[in-house]
Design goal:
The chain contains 11 helices and 10 strands. By secondary structure, it is α+β, with helices and mostly antiparallel strands. The strands form 4 sheets. Strands 1-2-4-3 form a 4-stranded antiparallel sheet, sandwiched between helices. The protein has a two-stranded antiparallel sheet with strand order 5-6. It has a two-stranded antiparallel ribbon with strand order 7-10. Strand 8 and strand 9 form a beta hairpin. Helix 5 runs parallel beside helix 10 and helix 8 packs across helix 10.
């Protein structure tokens, strides 16, 4: 953490706007009003440098995201926006000019994603260095508890907590929870060959993939942790990704997937679907139920 990261760490900035936060954390004056009133907002600094300013109100949210971005960057694989400054509430990153999804960028992106996963993690569920154990995926809490056995860890920390959360919210019925419990009991046979922990982005839906105007892809908004590499790929497929066939071809060229991975996609999609069921309601719960029943062959 540099001195800009520490700036005003104890200051009451509850009413601070994105422009003031950007100036304070980068040490540069703001040249114009922020674009957008929400989070993230685009701010232009002195000299015409444009940055993105994001606010995180949940305790540890900014710390988790900054640690995740830096951990992904440390793999020297997939590119991420540079963190220019942060404190407990605000984060400032470089702004990435975007363009149309480019088929010529898709295969190199797949190769870089494979290199990111291959960089590894100490355990399944391992948080990034300096990252909190209690992190987030989107607006949902996500606990990074390390484990060595992927089927057991995935059941205990990525499936069942969100099943319970969906039941508590009335999104899932209690008897429907039993379907997911049956899948979890069978995960040792459904998981495929054992894999070492991969360095995951963790929330790899298409909205977190930026197709840069310079022809390179960046990833944003990570929920980074150690996990199974097929989980990132399954999420990329779940919500759609332009030129996905080329992305997967590049990935397989760099780090071939274990046989039968296509049959395991649904198992890995249970995590993001259940998170969405907790956050957004019954439609995603029904989709998760369909995937779970398919995995059980019923």
């Amino acid at each position: 953490m540099d001195n800009r990261d520490e700036a005003a760490g104890n200051r009451d900035d509850a009413h601070e706007d994105p422009g003031r936060a950007a100036s304070r954390l980068t040490g540069r004056p703001v040249a114009g009003a922020p674009v957008g009133s929400g989070s993230p907002a685009e701010v232009t600094l002195d000299g015409g440098v444009r940055v993105m300013v994001k606010r995180g109100d949940a305790p540890g949210a900014v710390r988790a995201e900054v640690a995740g971005l830096r951990w992904l960057a440390a793999a020297h694989a997939v590119r991420v926006p540079e963190v220019l400054g942060h404190d407990e509430r605000w984060m400032v990153t470089e702004r990435v000019p975007t363009g149309r999804p480019d088929p010529d960028a898709a295969m190199p992106f797949g190769q870089s994603l494979a290199a990111l996963h291959t960089a590894g993690a100490s355990d399944f569920g391992a948080p990034p260095p300096d990252g909190p154990e209690d992190a987030f995926i989107g607006l949902a809490p996500m606990r990074n508890t390390p484990g060595t056995d992927w089927p057991r860890w995935y059941a205990e920390h990525r499936v069942l907590p969100y099943v319970r959360g969906a039941v508590d919210r009335g999104t899932l019925r209690s008897r429907e929870a039993e379907v997911f419990e049956r899948v979890c009991a069978r995960l040792p046979e459904l998981a495929g060959p054992a894999e070492p922990p991969a360095r995951l982005h963790g929330d790899l839906w298409n909205g977190n993939v930026l197709w840069g105007a310079d022809g390179e892809v960046r990833l944003i908004d990570p929920a980074a942790h150690g996990g199974h590499r097929e989980t990132d790929l399954a999420m990329l497929q779940l919500f759609g990704c332009p030129h996905l066939d080329r992305v997967l071809a590049g990935y397989e060229e760099r780090a071939p997937l274990a046989g039968g991975w296509q049959d395991r996609v649904g198992v890995h999609q249970l995590f993001p679907l259940l998170v969405h069921a907790v956050l957004f309601g019954r439609g995603y719960a029904e989709q998760a139920l369909g995937v779970a029943r398919s995995a059980l062959g019923v």
